[in-house]
Design goal:
By secondary structure, this protein is an alpha+beta fold. The chain is built from 9 helices and 8 strands. The protein has a 4-stranded antiparallel beta sheet with strand order 1-8-3-6. It has a 4-stranded antiparallel beta sheet with strand order 2-7-4-5. This is Crp/Fnr family transcriptional regulator.
Length: 194
């Protein structure tokens, strides 16, 4: 499993064999079955998880009991409830596997030590944090400025791997629209392209 993370790291930065050995020493492999939870709301998110294979989601439950998907993660992506992970507070979200998945988990303490001891790891993590922030800002802007149709086609363009693997109702939840609205958008697009 670690070879996938090692390849990912060496594509991002110049890691020495010793650096990779240090990361391997703290990376905890875990297999998840479809629908198995990696994190439950109310528990502390102690690990940042690198997705080796599969597809996971971070979601919260609204007051009305509906699911609101905040993030998906496929191969070579990282996932955690970052508010909980960074501050040690109980998670507001849940993380579960949408398909059988494999992850490598690195604890907050180990992640901090890697950043302190391996400059390449810190640069990689800083870049990931910046990209995550940018993605969040762009998602907020998209939510307040674009139509459901525009958001859906932007999602398809930016995330083709996720689009093909995730049920329509979950994409609708992620986009903040009803399944009916998303079905209508897709149906209208099929008519226009026929």
């Amino acid at each position: 499993m670690f070879d996938v993370l090692a390849r990912y790291l060496t594509e991002k930065e110049n890691f020495t064999p010793e650096d990779l050995a240090a990361v391997k020493q703290v990376a905890i492999p875990r297999r998840l079955r479809k629908r198995q939870y990696l994190l439950h709301e109310g528990t502390v998110s102690k690990y940042n998880c690198f997705v080796v294979s599969g597809c996971l989601r971070l979601f919260r439950i609204g007051d009305d009991g509906s699911e609101h998907i905040l993030r998906f993660a496929v191969e070579n992506w990282w996932i955690a409830d970052y508010e909980s992970y960074n501050f040690g507070e109980p998670a507001k979200g849940n993380v579960d596997a949408l398909v059988d998945s494999e992850v490598l988990m690195i604890s907050k303490a180990d992640m901090d030590a890697l950043c302190q001891n391996i400059p390449a790891f810190k640069r990689m993590k800083d870049l990931l944090d910046a990209r995550c922030f940018d993605a969040s800002q762009n998602r907020i802007f998209s939510s307040i400025s674009q139509s459901a149709e525009e958001r859906y086609f932007e999602f398809i363009k930016k995330h083709p791997l996720i689009h093909r693997r995730v049920p329509l109702h979950m994409i609708a939840s992620y986009l903040g629209v009803s399944r009916e609205t998303l079905s209508r958008v897709r149906h209208q697009n099929v008519k226009l392209n026929s």
